[in-house]
Every structure is written in C-alpha cells, then in structure tokens.
Amino acid sequence: NPFAHAQFVMSCASLDQCPTDALSELAFAGRSNSGKSSALNAICNQKALARVSKTPGRTQLINLFELPGQAGPAGRMVDLPGYGYAQVPEKIRKDWARMVGRFVEQRPNLQGIVLIMDCRHPLTDFDQQMLAWIQLGERRCHVLLTKSDKLGFGAGKTALLTVQKKIREMGIEVQSQLFSSHSGQGVEEARDALARLLAL
Ligand code: GDP
C-alpha cells in the first residue's frame, strides 16, 4: 500500500500558504459527513490520520499529508475542508468557496481530485460545484461513492450509473466506484486508481 506511511505535514489557510515545490498532489474533497475522513483513513490504513474539526461554521483549513518515498517524499495528499452544514454563515461559505475553488482551479501541483459522495445522496449542490471547478481546471477526478454497505447491490449499481451519466455529460475525465470504509469494499481499487493518478 503506497499510502500506508502518509504523515501530516501542515495546515494552510489559503492557496498562497501551500508549499511551492513540484511535489505531485491528490486532493480529497467532500461534503461534511460524506465519509471523507473515514475514506482517507481507510486508504492510508491509519485510524486517525484525518481528524478534521467537526465544529459547524468554523473556518477550516487545507491539511497536507506527505507520502514518504525512497529518496524524499513521493507525493502529497491534500484534505480540503468539507462543506455543507446547514447553519454556516454566509461569510464562511464564501471563504470556503474562494479557498477550495482557487485550489482546484489553480494549484499547479494538483494531479487529481478524489471526490467523496455518500452513495445514498450523490450529486448534491456541493458535488456539482466541485465538478464545475474540476471542469474549469481541467482536472482528473476519481469519485468514491462511500458508505456502500448501506445500499444493496442493485441500489449501489444505480447510484454508480447515475453519477457516471452526469459526469459523461459534463465531459470530464472521471472514474467512479463504490467504496465502504466499514466493509472494506473498493478500498484496494481506490488505492490502485489513486496511485495511478499520482504516478506512484
Ligand atoms: P466526513 O465529515 O466527510 O469526514 O465524514 P466522516 O468520515 O467523519 O464520517 C461521517 C459519518 O459517516 C460517521 O458517523 C462515520 O462513522 C460514517 N461513515 C463513514 N464511512 C462509512 C462507511 O463506509 N459506512 C458506514 N455505514 N458509515 C460510514
């Protein structure tokens, strides 16, 4: 598992605070409660790598994790702040959109986005906004439809087809799969896809 030794490096409040090196990055994006932290932890096989502040309405940070390689770091995982609490003040919502939008559209290091959606509620407004930024930035994207243990086989397949259809219509280069950090479904498949995006 190329992600097993991921370690936290730093938090940044904006794109301008992120390191200016040439290290390839993969960014995790998802609505609050979509299962993003659990997915990151499952992929890296670590219990508490992503411990995002869950305080609604608080300004959140971009968290960076490094993947150690043979001679220095091999890549970076970026945990973008989640969004979607109902009672978020307008100011925080705008700050979030500016920070995440700029990161996805402009970050030179970014090799791909891992977009996390709860398979029971895919393509929320948040997800559509992310897909629009991904489209603008001409980014590659891998979608994880999380909590697949909550759906039966047929419903999971339907969720996957719905998302794939939408993405095809947008003309983005995206792959998607079912994923469960609880049952382990799709964890290996996700590691393989992410390693390819990062050219590990
Ligand atoms: P985040 O806010 O997107 O980082 O979401 P978390 O990873 O903290 O998960 C939000 C909630 O969903 C928690 O109660 C998790 O236990 C639950 N959850 C996360 N992944 C799964 C999964 O694969 N299956 C099930 N059934 N629940 C999950």
Descriptive account of the structure:
The chain has helices at 36-43, 90-106, 125-136, 153-170, 187-197; strands spanning 7-12, 25-30, 62-69, 72-79, 110-118, 140-146, 173-178. It is of the alpha/beta class and 200 residues long. The protein has one domain: P-loop containing nucleotide triphosphate hydrolases (Rossmann fold, 3-Layer(aba) Sandwich). A seven-stranded mixed sheet has the order 1-3-4-2-5-6-7, with helices on both faces. Helix 3 (125-136) links the parallel strand 5 (110-118) and strand 6. The longest helix is centred in the C-terminal third of the chain and has 18 residues, at 153-170. The structure holds guanosine-5'-diphosphate (GDP). Guanosine-5'-diphosphate (GDP) binds at residues 30, 32-38, 52, 82, 146-147, 149-150, 180-182.
What's the short story on this structure?
This protein has helices spanning 36-43, 90-106, 125-136, 153-170, 187-197, and strands spanning 7-12, 25-30, 62-69, 72-79, 110-118, 140-146, 173-178. The chain has 200 residues and is an alpha/beta fold.
Topology readout:
Elements: E1 7-12, E2 25-30, H1 36-43, E3 62-69, E4 72-79, H2 90-106, E5 110-118, H3 125-136, E6 140-146, H4 153-170, E7 173-178, H5 187-197
Bound molecules: guanosine-5'-diphosphate (GDP).
Spatial order of the strands in the main sheet? 1-3-4-2-5-6-7
Report the CATH C-level class: Alpha Beta
What is the overall silhouette? Answer: globular
Number of E-state strands? 7
Low-confidence segments: none
**Main β-sheet description:** 7 strands, mixed
Query: Can you tell me the CATH architecture?
Result: 3-Layer(aba) Sandwich
What is the rounded distance between the termini?
10 Å
Radius of gyration: 16 Å
> Percent helix among the residues?
25-40%
Mind telling me the CATH superfamily name? P-loop containing nucleotide triphosphate hydrolases
Q: What share of residues are in beta strands?
A: 25-35%
Output mean pLDDT.
92
Distinct ligands:
guanosine-5'-diphosphate
